[in-house]
Specification:
- The complex is a heterodimer of chains A (579) and B (103).
- Chain A contains 23 helices and no strands.
- With 579 residues, chain A is mainly α.
- Chain A starts with 7 loop residues before the first helix and ends in a 5-residue tail after the last helix.
- Chain B has 103 residues and is mainly alpha-helical.
- Chain B has a two-stranded antiparallel ribbon.
- In chain B, a hairpin with a 2-residue loop joins strand 1 and strand 2 (53-54).
- Residues 92-103 of chain B have low confidence and may be disordered.
- Classes of the chains: A mainly alpha (579), B mainly alpha (103).
- At the A-B interface, helix 2, helix 6, helix 7, helix 12 and helix 13 of A face helix 1, strand 2, helix 2 and helix 3 of B.
Chain lengths: 579, 103
């Protein structure tokens, strides 16, 4: 197959126009924020989110959607459709399980952040502090991964970039046909970013941090909405281009199977040549796990919770269910189809996170119009990444400023000081993310899964308690968060220990302790995403299926064994208001 | 358990949440069971296609996805109730913009 065309000036111009439009929206958002009270305006958009904004931004399609997830389809095949299938109910569960109650509770308490809500509902500063810290940890890991995705797109869009050369610079896991790649039971890291990607990383960071810093929550939502529309257009165009190029969808599957193995068309999925023999991407236990994971991460994600709190009305919530249901159909199914066709068209891609940008650059033809179309399609993953980073920057900054700085350092800081501290927090978070992406992790989707699952494990039970359980107490909520997040950390730590001891055993270790631990934990199961951050799969299940019940049990037991909450406070949030 | 003095928003939210979780459970069971039975470890010769998709993907994922989309629309337009959410109470212990300008 011929090498795909390079980015060209047209692609960079299209991306630049996209970035400029986002910056303009950020500036407009800043003017709206100035009209109202700073905190509520900057961090919650004055609770005025309409249906389109809520629907297309609440579940925050990220770089994971447009680069990480396609990378998995490219690597493992049609089984990834089952892996992502939980999204069929996310539009409903994301808004209808707790949306209405969270919007109401937020208004009754005056809360503008998740820690705020927990503090006011349960009269518990400890719950708020723990929530703030965990939000910062989990959301930072997700956000850092997005910076890598942004750098990749910018690097590929560079006018003189040869995507094949970019791929050769990347020491990522080889695709099939790369006989020289080593099979490595331990975690893998990609090599450092090349010069173009580093420049792209800096440009990306400056733009996103900049417009988010000045426009806050509204800048994040408006640019997210704009980018969501661009993503939909980009995905549809790309599907219309690559599927015919592959000879139609059925032929694409047959070609991909011929390029890989029969596992590409069935479960548990194709095992890449660089994986150990017998690798199974999605056995039934993980299929259940991920269906649950996507649904509950949509409910418990702090970013989603904040957007629901900001909804304008219950009518908006209802319409958002409908809009997001339609949108998800138009995004996920075409993405899977595109990547199956991509496997047929580009059978030996090394860094599989690049499949969407590569197809965009290679199958839009030649000439100025083609370059602009490439830029439009590249804007899809780029926009998703910008939207995620922007959203998470706002949530992280709100936690640092409102729930840490104002609560514990300077409770009576004037608005001008709050504004400066907010800007500083965003800049620092952005700098840290840039630094961590000098040598980025492989498989963006691994961090997306960890962040989503951890958010669900930590916050689903507390917000269900807040919304529906009168008897829930502050200590119970703290216990629920600690048990959920603690289970996640424990199982991911266990995965690291398991890999480490078996690597030591393979290298000839004679330590009795190492051998005892290795025998106790057993060999790492050959399931899930190969390489990268992997948990301990207790009974073959993802940690989310252990963390959620642990969180529920802790929340219920501790609530029932601690003093009942203040009846007046409970009545304020549960009973009919007497006017 | 509902009480006589439960806020109406609480009542309807609880009902809608219960319906939603039932839909989730049904989708989970159907999708995972169907795909496990018909989508795993098959010989490549058995592969057939429906609208270009492998048969098990069409019946096990695309069809339930379509059903869930329809159910979501029905929930949105016919089941979920509207309520007045009331105005927010501003946080009482944090400075307002006016105080900030003076301070």
């Amino acid at each position: 197959m011929d090498r795909p065309a390079s980015g060209g000036v047209g692609v960079m111009l299209a991306l630049a126009a996209f970035i400029a439009a986002s910056a303009v929206l950020g500036a407009l958002a800043q003017r709206r924020v100035r009209k109202g009270e700073f905190l509520q305006g900057y961090f919650l958009g004055n609770r005025a989110l309409g249906a389109w904004a809520l629907a297309l931004t609440a579940t925050v399609q990220s770089g994971g959607t447009f680069m990480g997830f396609p990378s998995l389809v490219y690597s493992y095949g049609w089984i990834v459709a089952l892996w992502i299938a939980g999204y069929m109910v996310v539009p409903l569960t994301g808004f209808a399980v707790v949306g209405k109650r969270l919007a109401q509770l937020s208004r009754h308490s005056g809360a503008i952040t998740v820690p705020d809500l927990l503090r006011e509902r349960f009269d518990s500063p400890a719950a708020a502090l723990l929530a703030s810290l965990l939000i910062i940890v989990f959301m930072s890991s997700m956000m850092v991964a997005q910076f890598k995705a942004g750098a990749i797109v910018m690097g590929l869009a560079w006018p003189d970039a040869d995507p094949a050369a970019v791929a050769a610079d990347d020491g990522g896991e080889g695709a099939d046909g790369d006989e020289g790649a080593e099979k490595d039971a331990g975690p893998k890291r990609a090599s450092g970013l090349d010069r173009r990607q580093l420049v792209g990383l800096v440009v990306f960071s400056v733009v996103v941090v900049g417009y988010t810093m000045f426009g806050g929550f509204l800048a994040s939502v408006w640019t997210d909405l704009f980018q969501s529309v661009m993503m939909l257009v980009g995905v549809v165009i790309l599907a219309l281009l690559v599927v015919p190029a592959a000879g139609g969808l059925e032929q694409a599957t047959r070609t991909a199977v011929a390029n890989t193995s029969p596992g590409f068309a069935f479960g548990p999925g194709h095992a890449p040549a660089t994986s150990p023999d017998g690798w199974a991407f999605l056995p039934s236990g993980l299929a259940v796990s991920f269906f649950v994971l996507w649904v509950f991460s949509g409910i418990g994600s702090p970013a989603s919770i904040v957007r629901v709190m900001a909804t304008e009305s219950t009518q908006v919530l209802r319409r958002s269910v409908f809009l997001l249901a339609c949108y998800n159909c138009l995004i996920y199914v075409p993405l899977i189809v595109i990547c199956v066709a991509g496997r047929a068209l580009i059978p030996d891609l090394r860094d599989t996170d690049q499949i969407i940008p590569r197809l965009a650059l290679g199958y839009t033809g030649q000439g100025a119009g083609a370059a602009l179309m490439s830029g439009l399609i590249l804007a899809a993953p780029f926009g998703a990444v910008m939207a995620t980073v922007s959203c998470y920057l706002v949530v992280i900054a709100s936690g640092l400023v409102k729930d840490v700085y104002l609560r514990f350092v300077r409770p009576h800081a004037p608005v001008a000081e709050i504004r400066r501290v907010t800007y500083a927090a965003m800049i620092i978070v952005g700098l840290v993310a840039v630094a961590l992406n000098i040598r980025p992790v492989q498989y963006l989707q691994v961090l997306v899964v960890f962040s989503g699952a951890s958010g669900a494990a930590t916050f689903v039970v507390p917000i269900l308690m807040a919304a529906y359980w009168r008897r829930g107490t502050g200590p119970g909520v703290v216990a629920a968060m600690a048990a959920g997040s603690g289970t996640m950390f424990l199982l991911y730590f266990g995965g690291w220990i398991q890999r480490s001891v078996w690597t030591a055993v393979a290298n000839g270790s004679t330590s009795p302790l190492v051998n005892t631990i290795a025998e106790t934990l057993g060999r790492e199961p050959l399931i899930g995403i190969a390489g990268g951050l992997r948990p301990y799969y207790l009974l073959g299940l993802d940690p989310i299926l252990w963390a959620l019940p642990a969180s529920l049990a802790a929340g219920v037991v501790v609530s029932l064994t601690t003093s009942p909450p203040d009846p007046a406070r409970v009545s304020r949030y549960f009973d009919v208001v007497t006017r | 358990m509902s009480r006589p003095n439960d806020d109406p928003v609480l009542r309807s939210a609880r009902r809608e949440a219960a319906i939603t979780l039932l839909v989730f459970a049904a989708a989970l069971v159907y999708t995972v069971v169907y795909c496990s039975l018909y989508g795993y470890d098959r010989p490549v010769e058995s592969l057939t296609f429906v609208l270009g998709l492998p048969d098990w993907v069409f019946w096990g994922i695309l069809v339930p996805w379509g059903v869930c989309t329809v159910v979501s629309c029905v929930m949105s337009f016919a089941v979920m109730a509207d309520h007045d959410l009331e105005e927010a109470a501003p946080p009482s212990d944090l400075p307002s913009d006016e105080e900030g300008r003076r301070g």
